[in-house]
Amino acid sequence: MEFCGHGMDRSWCYLCHLEGGGVDPRTAWGLDAEDGPVPWERRREPMTETQAGHVRFLCEEFGEPFDESLTEHEAGIVVRSFLEEPMSDRQRRTLRWLCEKSGAPMPEDLTYRQARSQIRKLVALRGLRSA
Length: 131
Ligand SMILES: [Zn+2]
Description:
The chain is mainly α. It is built from 6 helices and no strands. Helix 3 (49-62) packs parallel to helix 4 (72-83) and helix 5 (89-102) packs parallel to helix 6 (112-126). The chain is elongated and about 50 Å long.
């Protein structure tokens, strides 16, 4: 096994995956508001580059095909539905590693969104480099 800069196995480290995924880090961590001022029914424009990066990243996480032709509106729906899926295997392994290091209990049955914020919290506690 090859250790990454975070001390985890590079093959499943969620942080490395996120950093190397070509996705805007603030978006990937869910720090930017996903809803803009434009009403949903008017968002027929093609998805933005930031959205496309995020959707592509999540499709890879869940082994789903990436559809480049999504509108802004559709991309928003796809992202939200992915976030309510159970956490990914990569997240689970990263979270378990972080919990072991921190002596925190390993939470089970998290959604992707919940696991993401949990990972971010533990990463901050450990002072690991992340977005
Ligand atoms: Zn890493």
